Amino acid sequence: MIQAQQLSKTFGHVQAVNSVSLQAPDGRITALLGANGAGKTTSLRMIYGLIRPESGQVRIDGVDPHHDREQSLHTLGVLPDARGLYKNLTARENIEYFGRLHGMAESDVQRRCDLLIEQLGMQSFAHRRTEGFSQGQRVKVALARTLVHDPQNIILDEPTNGLDVMATRSVRDFLRQEKARGKCILFSSHVMQEVSAICDHIVVIHNGRICATGSESELLAQTGQKNLEDAFVHLISHNGDNNARGNNP
After folding, report:
1. Which of 45, 38, 46, 43 is CA-nearest to residue 80?
2. pLDDT confidence of 240, banded at 50, 70, 90?
3. Is 166 buried (19+), middle (13-18) or exposed (0-12) by CB count in 10 A?
4. pTM of the model
5. Is residue 186 within 8 Å of 178, Cβ to Cβ?
């Protein structure tokens, strides 16, 4: 389980995140939904320990990633917004390398590589160097690398950004499989269709603040709208009005 309480962060005079709280339980897919610049990536970076929050706290299976980094990494897999791969290594070698960094036994590294390559449909390019890979191929390698140690908690920043339809479907199917295994999955997105297709719980963020939480059906009921896109526009418009009056959402 991932828990964040009252996270805040400023960059210069910009309040990027303001008192963000959320909870992502095991066996569910939780989405942090917001427009570009809403504070999604900064929030996730504070949650997985890359950025230290100015206030608030994070717990990943009860562990604070800012105070016990090594222990939290054993149960955490992170796909950041940057998908950097080692271009002189093959897809499989990229995955193997990260497995060894996690201290996995060589037999477990090979077993997990075989499984992830099959599940993500990477057989045709697993032994090719990653230089020149398509965006979809790069994301699949980065995702496999993220999950090679079979973490309980998975954080993904815009996991299907720039992917074509087939690659997007492949990633979604894989996330559903991980959810069925009881994994905690938290990801950010600005794509309504994606969130609607796979998420159990939605956290709407706008201008660095959480303005609504709930399932899709709960958000539709709350806003009186017929689809998630209209509900989202309604929520952030209302949030903007509140901020202009100096009120909390």
Report:
1. 45
2. low
3. exposed
4. 0.89
5. no
157: amino acid identity, one letter: D
The rounded distance, in Å, linking the Cα atoms of 58 and 60 is: 7
**What is the C-alpha to C-alpha distance for residues 127 and 113, in angstroms, rounded to an integer?**
12
Contact 195, 33 (CB under 8 A): yes
Round the average pLDDT of the chain to a whole number and report it.
90
Q: Which DSSP letter does residue 65 get?
A: T
Return d(Cα 226, Cα 35) in angstroms, integer.
Answer: 20
Integer Cα distance of 74 and 95 in angstroms: 16
Element (H, E) at 180: helix 165-180
Over residues 105-126, the pLDDT tens digits come to 999 999 999 999 998 889 999 9
Distances (CA, A) of 10 to 16, 43, 52, 127, 231: 5, 11, 11, 43, 28
pLDDT tens digit string along 129-185?
999 998 889 989 999 999 999 999 999 998 888 788 888 888 889 899 999 999 999
